[in-house]
Amino acid sequence: MKLRIATLVLTVALAGCGGDAAPAAGPGAVTVFAAASLTESFTTLGRQFEAAHRGATVRFNFAGSAALATQINQGAPADVFASAAPKNMAAVTEAGNAAGAPTTFVRNQLVIAVAEGNPERITGLSGLTGPGRKVALCAEQVPCGAAARTALNAAGLRLTPVTLEQDVKAALAKVKLGEVDAALVYRTDAAAAAADVDAVEFPESARATNDYPIVVLRHAANPAGAQAFVDYVRSAGGMRVLTGAGFQRP
Amino acid sequence: MTTAPRRTGRVPIALLLPALGGLVFLVLPLAGLLWRTPWATLPQRLTAPDVVAALKLSLLTASLATLLCLILGVPLAWLLARVDFPGRRLARALITVPLVLPPVVGGIALLLALGRRGLLGGWLDSTFGVSLPFTTAGVVVAEAFVALPFLVISVEGALRGADTRYEEAAATLGASRWTTFTHVTLPLVAPGIAAGGVLCWARALGEFGATITFAGNYPGITQTMPLAVYQTMESGDLDGAVVLSLILLAVSVTILAALRDRWLAGP
């Protein structure tokens, strides 16, 4: 008897996961794997999407784009993938896990995040290389790190950071804690943390913009809901949220 | 000299099945690692400079962390086992906290205590210009923080299990407490200390969360093997991450297997 109940519970749970039980009326449950730098704006978009579509629920998995790509290619159940770099999107499309071609929906630029009030008076990239200056960068393997490397090369600067963080949020956290004097992060992340950090713009960031592609995944349990969410992100309302957060239109 | 297990007829199937299930549950993921290992490119990957640097750093910091734990942990265990002082129960509870604390929380706590703006770290920085985050010393501190409880618990258990008559005899013969400790107590619990040291070293070697949070991640300075595994995985290089994991696994298993029969299989 107990076994039968367990089986029943398991069956129901599995059916829920598979999305077979999605109500015909709304887009149902949509699972979105999105880059860490999209955390704030996608959380807002998810809430708006749920409000606009009755019965819809959006679940997010925010992490570094490369980690998400690996998870998707290893069979993690996801409907939509939004990456912070074309390279990580390519890992998914080349493995045949995308349904259709990805589209670039926003761009992002780097800024120098410094402690509130900019106590070290940092005004540009060259201010990061002084003696005793502690700087956090993203690791070159993750998109914000690759962009930072491009920007530093564009400025002709050599910079030895004290740490190479695994995603942009971790780099920003080291500034918030006061453990480093500055970090190169996305403008959007600095804006989201405006209560604790100031953002210093620098001209070389224009030569290191990151394109964000989005795609519906081939093994999506809910392809219609996934498409509806992607359309919503790219709609005028979605773009308002994204540009409000500091992203640029492609 | 352990006695051979008694064999009393057939093993009940109700015990055997879950036991085998448990074994498979623990071994299967390791098999997954071996199954996915890119054997053809293994030699090049093993000798890559980053891998060698991370492994060297891991072995060095885990050993230094164990040394630090021995210096601090053995006296602490002795205090808990042999001296009755007020607040002993609370002290014992506090010591086990890092065992159950998520390592990332440990890393944040270390930052708030020893970071540049931390409770003690702020003073260290302004007075001596010493700052632990982003240094190899910081890695040792993070590893010691999570590994120390393993040592203290092992040694305290050994001290409680040890026969105190020898210590009393030494004391009646005029030995001071320090002489008794170094000449009687320490040799008596040496196997317990060794067992605790091995556990401590293995835990320090595998430490990830507190290290990346407190000490950061920079190749050659703070990037230990677990951090290198994570970074390789994050960069989408699954093969590379598997190879690094395999090395870590091989080192851990070799050490534990070599020492287990000798020290960890207590009475």
Instruction: Please count the helical segments of chain A.
Output: 9
Mind telling me the C-alpha Rg of chain A?
Answer: 20 Å
The residue-averaged pLDDT of chain A reads 88
Total separate domains of chain B: 1
Task: Kindly report the average pLDDT value of chain B.
Answer: 89
| Second-tier CATH architecture of the largest domain in chain A | 3-Layer(aba) Sandwich
Tell me the number of strands of chain B: 0
Give the termini distance of chain A in whole angstroms: 59 Å
The helix-and-strand class of chain A reads: alpha/beta
Low-confidence stretches of chain A: 1-25
Structural overview:
The complex is a heterodimer of chains A (250) and B (267). Chain A has 250 residues and is α/β, with parallel strands linked by helices. Chain A is 39% helix and 23% strand. Chain A is built from nine helices and ten strands. In chain A, the strands form two sheets. In chain A, strands 2-1-3-10-4 form a five-stranded mixed sheet, with helices on both faces. In chain A, helix 5 links the parallel strand 6 and strand 7. The N and C termini of chain A lie far apart (59 Å). Chain B is mainly α. The radius of gyration of chain B is 22 Å and the shape is globular. Classes of the chains: A alpha/beta (250), B mainly alpha (267). The interface between A and B is medium-sized, with 24 and 22 residues.
